[in-house]
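Colleagues,

For the teaching module next term, I've prepared a clean inverse folding example: a structure given as tokens, and then the sequence designed for it. I'd like students to try predicting residues themselves before seeing the answer, so please don't circulate the second half yet.
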């Protein structure tokens, strides 16, 4: 059987980074910058007021106190957005709002709370140092400065900065576009009455969520029965929109393995990987599009995604920390594991105690337990018994 590491290398080799694209900034949240961002202008772009108050010459109010206020005539009213250039005459004040351009000659802003808020003659009840409550042009960003670096994830703050600099677009690494196909004639959509022998389709919903959580884009989630022509038709209809195809089901050794039947002629290599769950796997290229075929049992499908797909997808999108955090924890119980297979058991990790407890049966159809687990226990192929108190490696899924 193929080792886990070997199949990881095969899968990773099929997933490649898309060329950088320029996108409107509103569409780039969570993507990774492909190029440095250089500020085309300074921030602030002009000297402006940091407070609602009055622009003054600091020397004019040097002796102002609540008991002995300085009276100044209010010569201008400056709301934010006023565009004409004003000059403050010494011995006067301009009422000014936060963000409004500072008139020339003014050297300080007195907050409105330190005045009587008048619009004709204002009482200034406190002195001010030169520069007080003034935002100087360029004190945040100087034009020509590199403010965001290639490889940086676009965050809400990064978008705010880009918008403040007047940038409508950013060059980013686009998301991987993935087609998810579930197979099986027994599958029906949730909300449809079940007939005997039918089950609700869950793998596509689960894997689509895992893909989006990893940062990828899901282009479609069709379901195909155990009919090669129907499967190929669904594949052909959606394949052109995808960078990667993921299928679930139809890869085991039974009589109705539609994925094997449809793609087994040199397009996809079907192998057994020395792991539990998730032994039947496949990988290849269909008409130029990489394809990864996963087993149909839900736990096998999601564990396979974690082990083989999540990290290379995130790496191809330039996202940081592509792999799940690995930790060492103390096992709270005795466990057994099949010889020759790497086992991934559902577990509950207690970060405060540093302990982990296996959670639920190991079989690949027990989805309920995976839904409540916060980690996977990774048990090597050559380990058949683990005693309580042993140190084990876990994949932190929290």
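(Answer key — instructors only)
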């Amino acid at each position: 059987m193929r080792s886990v590491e070997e199949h990881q290398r095969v899968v990773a080799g099929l997933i490649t980074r898309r060329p950088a694209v320029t996108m409107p900034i509103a569409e780039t949240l969570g993507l990774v910058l492909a190029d440095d961002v250089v500020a085309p202008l300074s921030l602030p772009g002009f000297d402006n007021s940091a407070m609602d108050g009055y622009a003054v010459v600091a020397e004019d109010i040097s002796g102002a106190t609540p008991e002995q206020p300085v009276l100044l005539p209010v010569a201008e009213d400056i709301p934010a957005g006023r565009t004409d250039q004003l000059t403050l005459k010494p011995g006067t004040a301009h009422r000014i709002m936060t963000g409004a351009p500072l008139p020339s000659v003014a050297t300080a802003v007195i907050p409105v709370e330190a005045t009587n808020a008048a619009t004709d003659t204002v009482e200034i009840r406190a002195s001010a140092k030169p520069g007080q409550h003034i935002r100087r042009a360029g004190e945040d960003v100087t034009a020509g400065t590199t403010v965001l670096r290639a490889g940086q994830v676009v965050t809400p703050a990064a978008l705010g900065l880009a918008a403040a600099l007047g940038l409508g677009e950013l060059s980013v690494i686009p998301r991987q576009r993935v087609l998810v196909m579930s197979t099986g004639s027994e599958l029906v959509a949730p909300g449809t009455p079940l007939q005997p022998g039918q089950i609700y389709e869950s793998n596509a919903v689960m894997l689509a969520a895992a893909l989006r959580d990893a940062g990828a884009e899901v282009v479609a989630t069709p379901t195909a029965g155990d009919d090669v022509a129907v499967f190929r038709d669904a594949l052909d209809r959606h394949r052109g929109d995808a960078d990667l195809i993921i299928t679930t089901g139809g890869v085991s050794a039974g009589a109705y393995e539609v994925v094997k039947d449809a793609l087994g002629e040199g397009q996809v290599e079907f192998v057994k990987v020395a792991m539990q769950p998730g032994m039947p796997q496949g990988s290849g290229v269909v008409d130029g599009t990489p394809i990864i075929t996963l087993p149909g049992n839900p736990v096998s499908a999601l564990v396979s995604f974690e082990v083989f797909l999540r990290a290379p997808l995130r790496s191809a999108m330039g996202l940081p920390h592509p792999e799940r955090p690995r930790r060492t924890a103390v096992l709270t119980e005795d466990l057994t594991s099949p010889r020759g297979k790497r086992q991934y058991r559902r577990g509950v990790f207690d970060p405060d105690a540093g302990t982990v407890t296996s959670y639920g049966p190991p079989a690949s159809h027990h989805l309920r337990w995976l839904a409540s687990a916060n980690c996977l226990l990774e048990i090597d192929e050559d380990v058949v018994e683990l005693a309580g108190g042993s140190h084990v490696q876990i994949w932190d899924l929290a």
